Amino acid sequence: MEEYAYFLQTAEHEWLEWRVQSGDKREQSQVLQKPITVALIDDGVDVNDQNVQSRIIGGRSFCHRDEEQNLNQPYYISGGGHGTAMAGLICKVCPTVKLFILRLDEYSIEPGKRNITAKSAAKAVRDAVEKKVDIISMSWTIEKTDSNGNDIKELEDVITAAARENILMFCAATDQGAYKDRTYPAATSTKKIFKIGAAEASGAALKWLGDQTLVDFVFPGHQVVMEQHGDPRVKKYTPLTGSSVATALASGLAAVILYTIQLAEVSKERGGPTGGLPITQESRPYEGGLLADRHHQGKREQVYYGVEPLRGRGQTG
């Protein structure tokens, strides 16, 4: 995972270096299209977190503080730290991404368990559509009840609207076993939403993952470290587990893919070597990863990038 993030940063630097050498004096913002933006719908994000603070471009909160005075909790504070962790994982995979934060309304029935209102989720997705984001990341689940049926219907409608706008959507599968397989937004009728489950290091799905036939992909989701390895500022690593973790990583990977496509298209227009990218198009699978040819400072070298465990629909182990 970190190898790809490093590769992306290095490729961008070399691409910008090539532009300068070729006489292209335009600012990066003039060359690239709009930044790849992920709408992170969660419990808010701590904007003072050093891993994400430069990536956040704005946000909105639907978490009520005082309904009578129409006051909400701020989006730039995380209610339980979950949103901050998910933001960190997305940025860890794609360090060039921009985040638009949408904070959900929550209530508590039992200590230590957060419950999200479907009404606030629907409002958040609608706002993401209006902001014309590229990706929506939803690392949570909501169960349909007798009291929230209308709000669930509204959530389904806005997710369908997002699909019509070709926004990539990633949501978490349930982690409560196969008998809990009708949670939302995964249970929405549209096929244009990726249901993500958590996998162990071996690639096998976690044992408490829900109905695996309803899962599109599994991503690393067991004891995933949020911090960057080797960061001297980190005194203690924080391992995270669950399909919410896997969903954030999937969203980050999607951002990487969109960004590299954007770089390739712009470089091709400028007529650089092999489309302007410092990495050639010559690459091939090798020992579970990718072996790519790179031309750097006039020299040709081969670089290996390992691949994290990833399976297709309904596959395990």
TrEMBL record:
Q: Which PROSITE patterns match?
A: SUBTILASE (PS51892)
Instruction: Outline the extent of the Peptidase S8/S53 domain.
Output: 35-258
Which residues lie in Basic and acidic residues bias regions?
292-302
Spell out the Gene3D superfamilies in the cross-references.
Answer: Peptidase S8/S53 domain (3.40.50.200)
Tell me if RNA-binding is a UniProt keyword of this record. Answer: no
- Region Disordered: start and end of each range? 269-317
- What Gene Ontology biological process does one annotation of this record name? proteolysis
CDD domains documented for this protein: Peptidases_S8_7
Q: Which InterPro entries match?
A: Peptidase_S8/S53_dom, Peptidase_S8/S53_dom_sf, Peptidase_S8/S53_subtilisin, Peptidase_S8_subtilisin-rel
Q: Name one Pfam family in it.
A: Peptidase_S8
Catalytic residues? Answer: 42, 82, 244
UniProt keyword annotations, A-Z: Hydrolase, Protease, Serine protease
One function term, GO molecular function aspect = serine-type endopeptidase activity
What is the similarity comment for this entry? Belongs to the peptidase S8 family.
PANTHER family in alphabetical order? CELL WALL-ASSOCIATED PROTEASE, SUBTILISIN-RELATED
Q: What is this protein called?
A: Peptidase S8/S53 domain-containing protein
Tell me the organism.
Answer: Xylaria arbuscula
